[in-house]
Design goal:
It contains 24 helices and two strands. It is mainly alpha-helical. The protein has a two-stranded antiparallel sheet with strand order 1-2.
Length: 637
């Protein structure tokens, strides 16, 4: 099966081509079924490759399959090659698996949309790009997928581009990600300069055995982190992700749960040995610090949001911050563990929110919901499971992965642990707030009938089977997902044993004492989560305490508005000044040189007129000039 790894990205690509050529003829729902079948087939192949790898010994679980030599240019040779190892196949499993569920869900969600087949065209292209990213044997193949998901995110976020807000959100995502792409490219330049290759194997080998200078490793690690900050929406480049809610809800689930935003975390774990030796650990401190700050910042903002999808968007930013906190703390297994469990419960929550929006006639304001649990029982039940998982309630999946990150944060610094703990408290609080506002309390959906406009009177109803089936599957995964990495013994840490060949030289060991108090820390984390749930219950259900939702948090600390004001004011003027300097000074110098040469050539050309007397005169002038030169030279001597 290892030699069939190329089929994993090839199948979604084939789906893209089929829908591209036959999409209109296939129509609804057949175009959706074709796209779903191609993604599900890729999942089946991925499972086969996983089983094949599992049958091998630990250090034989790495296989490179080369399709062809892509770029042979001087000393640079880049193969279009795929790498099958525990990390890439773990990523491919949940990209294709959850991607298939999102495709199936979309068949019901996008029912009746005039661009139904085009939506699935973009979805298949997105999955293909993400698979190229995670399966790439070298940085350039990864970068091909990296740019592909960036382009597809623009197409999907602005899918309903007739809405100005959707078109603007797509452009913001595209432009913001270009900043991160710059960092990735600079990292590639330094890697090739240092090693003469872009392959991950030689890079990690050199980092593990002292074959690369620490200063170079630091630059590569930090530039890769810049790329990761853009793609995985960390401070200060997070601002594209909340606006990405303008796309259809399956897009939100695909981008925010299983694919694009996890790419940055994947890239950092893939190059973990480089980060581990970078500048005596101050570079990992930067990663951990920005991750912790992002986690806390976004959790605070989520507390005051009223759009059902915006709450989940800021929650995604916060949970990604948790993953970077793990990476910076040297907990690479914990980062991947939380990435997997987050893919389960966040995809569930986003698809659940889409089911609510579908049943509420496109209403997204939680203040106009309430009491939906009885009218949408399956959606409500599965959403509550997702809430318990993200809130860190045992034994749901989110508890195990979040607890492991907090353990390593304590191992690195108690300050980071406190920030992570406060974030966990806020997460439990704002998710409980969301569940109460949407599924419990008083029914408020027709309280503002005159304000509903195009929504009209709302009659909540349950979603079709194609939308509910993915919710049930993801709810099951959100319950049992923690089984892949339980902390009881080495034998129950299945994910750690699986990933060991990839990160064994980079994973930070726990300090003396950290292992001994891990159950105390886990108990504190559970207590903090329960406090957050209780506080939200008292505020939003019992109304015992007044809700604190300041405009500062509702407007995300005015950071986005500040950036927009800067870019639209002084920023635009400075860009115009740069453009003027480029067109008048830089281009002016180039064009002026050309005109000068053209003018001199025009004068010289007049002497080349074909008349013998002109040539004789020129020869005479030349002879006089030569004689004058010798005369003056003699006088000077």
């Amino acid at each position: 099966m290892l030699d069939l790894i190329w089929l994993i990205p090839a199948l979604p690509l084939a789906g893209f081509l089929i829908v591209l050529v036959l999409g209109r003829k296939l129509g609804e729902p057949r175009a959706g079924y074709v796209a779903t079948l191609m993604t599900a087939s890729a999942f089946v192949v991925t499972v086969g490759v996983f089983i094949d790898l599992l049958s091998k010994t630990s250090h034989d679980r790495s296989h490179v399959y080369t399709l062809f030599s892509w770029i042979p240019a001087g000393n640079l040779t880049v193969d279009l090659a795929f790498l099958a190892d525990p990390l890439s196949i773990t990523m491919a499993l949940f990209v294709t698996g959850i991607g298939s569920l999102i495709h199936l869900y979309s068949i019901g969600y996008m029912h009746g949309d005039p661009k139904f087949s085009k939506f699935f065209l973009y979805l298949n292209l997105f999955v293909f790009s993400m698979l190229m990213l995670v399966l790439g044997e070298n940085m350039l193949v990864t970068f091909l997928g990296w740019e592909g998901v960036g382009t597809c995110s623009y197409l999907l976020i602005s899918f309903w581009h007739s809405r100005e807000s959707a078109a603007t959100a797509g452009k913001k995502a595209f432009v913001t990600n270009r900043v991160g792409d710059w960092g990735f490219m600079v990292a590639m330049f330094f890697t090739f300069q240092a090693l003469g290759t872009l392959s991950y194997g030689p890079l990690n080998e050199a980092a593990s055995h002292g074959g690369i200078a620490q200063s170079t490793a630091t630059m590569i690690a930090l530039m890769l982190f810049v790329g990761a900050v853009g793609k995985s929406a960390q401070l200060p480049l997070y601002l594209w992700l909340p606006d990405a809610m303008e796309g259809p809800t399956p897009v939100s689930a695909l981008i925010h749960a299983a694919t694009m935003v996890t790419a940055g975390v994947y890239l950092m774990v893939r190059t973990a040995p480089v980060l581990a030796i970078a500048a005596w650990h101050w570079a990992p401190w930067i990663v951990a610090g920005i991750g912790a700050a992002t986690a806390l910042y976004a959790a605070l903002v989520a507390v005051a949001q009223n759009d059902i999808k915006k709450v989940l968007a800021y929650s995604t930013v916060s949970q990604l911050g948790y993953m970077f906190l793990a990476v910076g703390s040297g907990a690479y297994v914990a980062a991947i563990f939380h990435m997997v469990t987050h893919a389960f419960f966040k995809a569930l929550l986003f698809l659940g929110s889409g089911s609510v929006i579908h049943g509420m006639n496109s209403e997204q304001d939680m203040r106009r919901m309430g009491a939906l649990r009885k009218l949408m029982p399956i959606t409500g039940f599965t959403f509550i499971i997702g809430w318990l998982a993200i809130a860190g309630v045992p034994p749901f999946a989110g508890f195990w992965s979040k607890d492991e990150i907090l353990l390593f944060a304590w191992n690195k610094s108690p300050i980071l642990w406190v920030v992570g703990l406060v974030t966990a408290l806020l997460t439990a609080y704002y998710m409980t707030r969301q569940v109460i506002m949407v599924f419990y309390g008083k029914a408020r959906w027709n309280d503002h009938a005159e304000e509903n406009g195009a929504h009209g009177d709302v009659h909540p109803h349950e979603s079709p089977v194609t939308m509910l089936l993915p919710l049930v599957v993801l709810a099951g995964l959100s319950i049992v997902g923690g089984l892949i990495q339980l902390p009881f013994s080495h034998g129950t840490k299945r994910l750690e044993m699986w990933l060991e060949p990839v990160i064994e030289t980079a994973e930070s060991p726990l300090k003396a004492g950290s292992e001994d108090i891990k159950w105390i820390l886990a108990g504190v984390a559970v207590a903090i989560g329960l406090i957050g749930i209780t506080a939200a219950y008292m505020v939003y259900s019992k109304k015992k305490v007044k809700a604190i939702e300041p405009n500062l948090l509702a407007n995300a600390w005015y950071y986005d508005k500040g950036v927009s004001a800067l870019m639209g004011g002084p920023g635009r003027k400075s860009f115009d000044a740069v453009a003027w300097f480029d067109s008048h000074i830089i281009d002016g110098a180039v064009n002026g040189t050309g005109k000068l040469v053209q003018g001199v050539a025009g004068i010289v050309r007049k002497g080349q007129n074909g008349l013998v007397r002109t040539y004789a005169a020129l020869i005479g002038v030349g002879a006089v000039a030569v004689i004058a030169w010798f005369v003056f030279r003699g006088v000077a001597q």
